[in-house]
Design brief:
9 helices; alpha/beta; eight-stranded mixed β-sheet; 18 strands; globular
C-alpha cells in the first residue's frame, strides 16, 4: 500500500486470499468503488450473491488514494464537444447521470452510515489564465441552460472573495452539489457494508486465468477458483491487457500525483485568501486539483509522468512542490509530508464505458472514469447490479457510455502517446 495521508493511522482490513473452489452468481474482478458498489447493490437491493477478487490488498487501487473530489464529468470531452458528438439530448442525459453519480455517492454515505468527512457544497473549476475565461463562461451557460445543472461563472473578484487568490485565478465555474470526502474512509465503508450483506471480498487474489466451462465462467487465482454465472470487470486503470482479449488495449492508464503539506495556520491560508473547503480544479489541460483538508493540510495534485518508479516519483514530487509555490507564492517552500500517485483510466474516445459484451451478455464492464470516478464508479456499480438483476438495460444508458471504446495500440506505444500528449499540452498551454 502506498503511504497516503488517508492511510495514516488507519487499520486496513485483513487480506484473505481466495482459497479452494467457490460457486457464486456473480464474480467481480476489482475491489474499488465500482466492484464493491456492484457487490453491495447486488446483495442489498436484489438479493444476488457475489464474490469480489482483488489483485492487491483491499485498498490497493485508485479508490483508496484519490483526491476525494466528488465531481464531474468522467470524460475528457468538454460539454461543447460532447454535444457536437452525441447531440443535445444524449449529452444532457450523460451530464444528468453524472449528477446522479454525485447523489449516489452521497446516498451511500448516508444509507450505509459511512463517515467519510464530507466537505463543501460545490466544486470549482478555476480559470488559470484569462484566455480560459470564455470557455468556462460558455460551459457554465451550457451546464445551466442546456443540461439544467446549478452552475454559475464567478468573475475573478467574486471568486476571490469566497475562494482563493494566487497567480492562476481569473474567475471560476461553480457547480453546486459536488463535494469533497476522505476516499479511503468511503472505500472501507463500502467494503464493510458489502461484507455485512454477506459478500466475500478477497485481496491478494489476482485473476490470472479465465475460461468458460458449460455456461459458467471459471476464474483462477493463485490459490483458488471461482465459478460464476456472471462476471463484472471493475479494474479501471489497473486492467491487465492479458485479463481477457475483449478488454486488451482499450484503456489508457495515466499517473495522477498528489502532495500534501503540513497543516497550515489560519494566517498562512489567509495569506493566499484561501477561504473555501470546496474542491477546486483548474482549467489547464493537465489540470491541477487542490483542496484544504479538515486539519488544514493542503492537498495539491496533478497529472503527469508515465513511468512511475522512485526517480520519476522524486521528479514529480519536486515539480508539484514547485508548481504549488508558483500558483500560491506565499506557500513557496512549504513542507510537504506526503506524496503518492496512482493510475486513472482514459479511453481513446474520451468517454467512459459501462455495459456488457454483445458476444457474451454475462460479461459486464465499467471503466474509463478519466480521473472522476468518486461519483461515477459507485453509480456504475449500482447500474451493473440493476442490469444483472434485469431491472435496467445498459443498452439504454446515455450514448457516451455505450459500447467498448476502440482498441489502442500496444502498451509501449500507449506510453509514447501519453508522453506526446503531455509534451503537447506543455508547449501549447498559456501560462
Ligand atoms: C492520485 C489520484 C487522484 C484522483 N483523484 C480523484 C478525485 O479527486 N476525484 C475523482 O472522482 N477521481 C479521482 N481519481 C480517480 C478515481 O480514484 C478512480 O476513477 C476510481 O477510484 C476508480 O475506481 P474503480 O473501482 O473503477 O477502480 P480502482 O479503485 O482502481 O480498482 C481497480 C482494482 O482492480 C484490481 N485488479 C486489477 N487487475 C486485477 C486482476 N487481474 N485480478 C483482481 N483484481 C485486479 C486492482 O488491484 C484495483 O484494486 C484519482 C485517481 C488517482 C490515482
Amino acid at each position: 500500500m502506498p503511504r497516503t495521508w488517508w492511510s495514516e493511522g488507519v487499520d486496513l482490513p485483513a487480506t484473505t486470499p481466495l482459497s479452494g473452489e467457490v460457486r457464486t452468481e456473480v464474480a467481480i474482478i476489482g475491489a474499488g468503488y465500482t466492484g464493491l458498489s456492484a457487490a453491495l447493490h447486488l446483495a442489498r437491493d436484489h438479493g444476488i450473491e457475489s464474490v469480489v477478487l482483488d489483485a492487491g490488498p483491499i485498498g490497493w487501487g485508485a479508490s483508496a488514494r484519490n483526491g476525494g473530489f466528488v465531481t464531474l464529468p468522467a470524460a475528457k470531452l468538454s460539454a461543447e464537444q460532447m454535444i457536437a458528438r452525441y447531440g443535445d439530448q444524449e449529452a444532457r442525459r450523460f451530464y444528468l447521470s453524472q449528477m446522479e453519480g454525485i447523489e449516489t455517492t452521497r446516498a451511500l454515505l448516508a444509507e450505509e452510515r459511512i463517515d467519510a468527512d464530507p466537505q463543501g457544497d460545490c466544486v470549482y473549476e478555476v480559470a488559470h489564465h484569462e484566455s480560459a475565461v470564455p470557455h468556462l463562461v460558455t460551459t457554465a451557460d451550457i451546464y445551466r441552460h442546456r443540461f439544467g445543472l446549478d452552475a454559475t461563472f464567478l468573475q475573478g473578484w467574486a471568486f476571490g472573495a469566497i475562494g482563493h487568490g494566487g497567480t492562476e485565478q481569473f474567475g471560476a465555474l461553480r457547480l453546486r452539489g459536488g463535494f469533497g470526502l476522505n476516499p479511503l474512509k468511503f472505500l472501507l465503508g463500502l467494503e464493510a457494508a458489502a461484507r455485512r450483506r454477506g459478500v466475500r471480498v478477497h485481496g491478494a487474489s489476482p485473476v490470472h486465468d479465465w475460461v468458460k466451462d458449460r455456461g459458467r465462467h471459471v476464474l483462477e487465482t493463485p490459490e483458488g477458483r471461482v465459478s460464476a454465472r456472471h462476471v463484472i470487470v471493475a479494474t479501471n486503470g489497473y486492467t491487465p491487457d492479458e485479463l481477457r482479449p475483449d478488454f486488451a488495449n482499450r484503456t489508457l492508464p495515466a499517473l495522477s500525483n498528489i502532495v500534501v503539506t503540513r497543516p497550515l495556520t489560519a494566517a498562512e491560508l489567509e495569506a493566499e485568501r484561501f477561504r473555501t473547503d470546496c474542491p477546486v480544479a483548474n482549467s489547464r489541460s493537465l489540470l491541477f486539483y487542490y483542496r484544504v483538508l479538515p486539519d488544514r493540510r493542503f492537498l495539491f495534485g496533478g497529472r503527469g509522468g508515465t513511468a512511475g518508479g522512485p526517480a520519476d516519483d522524486a521528479a514529480m514530487r519536486a515539480w508539484l512542490e514547485t508548481r504549488l509555490g508558483e500558483v500560491f507564492p506565499s506557500w513557496r517552500g512549504i513542507e510537504t509530508t506526503h506524496f503518492w500517485n496512482g493510475l486513472v483510466c482514459l479511453t481513446a474516445r474520451g468517454t467512459p464505458a459501462v455495459g456488457r459484451l454483445p458476444a457474451d451478455r454475462t460479461v459486464h464492464y465499467a471503466f474509463g472514469w478519466h480521473g472522476n470516478g468518486v461519483n461515477t464508479a459507485p453509480w456504475a456499480g449500482m447500474v451493473l447490479a440493476m442490469s444483472i438483476a434485469d431491472r435496467a438495460r445498459v443498452e439504454s444508458l446515455p450514448a457516451p457510455y455505450r459500447g467498448l471504446p476502440m482498441s489502442l495500440v500496444s502498451p509501449g506505444l500507449r506510453r509514447l502517446i501519453l508522453k506526446g500528449a503531455y509534451l503537447w499540452y506543455g508547449l501549447t498551454e498559456r501560462t
